Amino acid sequence: MAGIITQIIPKQRFDFTWLGNNATKTIVLHSALNVVPYYYARFAVRLHATCTLVTGQSVDLEAFGTDPSPDDPTEFTKTGTAALSASIDDSTSVPSLLSATASDLDPFLKLILTFNQCSTGGTPLWVELSADLILRET
């Protein structure tokens, strides 16, 4: 079974302390990652030893199926439940390795990272993350 490991987040610190009450910030890491040759996928998300999260804060890495069309500039992305999802909150120990798996993938994956602030804006919200996407053929 052939496969590939793709780094989707090199180790880096994300600081979203500036977010207001119950605010969220979403970063699109990749709008349409071609996964056509692959059937299985796994997130490997590393939460490094330095972070600060309190109750109500979270960080979510998600992958949604998508299939862009050269005939229409509209984004054709599945909404609702993500194909892959890893969530970090105040109960996640550090350091940690989180994973999620999926099979029967759509032809492309949209990868997003979302930061969720608690009800008190300006509360420290920062993490050091790195992540890989492991893809395997059938």
Features:
four-stranded antiparallel sheet, globular, 138 residues, 8 strands, mainly beta
- CATH topology title: Jelly Rolls
The fraction of residues assigned to DSSP E strands is over 45%
Summed up, the domain count is 1
Helical fraction: under 10%
CATH class, named: Mainly Beta
Structural class estimated from helices and strands = mainly beta
The separation of the N and C termini measures 7 Å
> Average pLDDT value?
93
Strand order of the largest sheet: 1-8-3-6
**Can you tell me the residue ranges where pLDDT is under 50 for at least 5 consecutive residues?**
none
| Discrete helix count | 0
Overall spatial form: globular
Number of strands: 8
Structure description:
The chain is mainly β and 138 residues long. The protein is built from no helices and eight strands. The chain has one domain (3-136): Jelly Rolls (Sandwich), CATH 2.60.120. The strands form two sheets. A four-stranded antiparallel beta sheet has the order 1-8-3-6, with no helix packed on it. Strands 2-7-4-5 form a four-stranded antiparallel beta sheet, with no helix packed on it. The termini are close together.
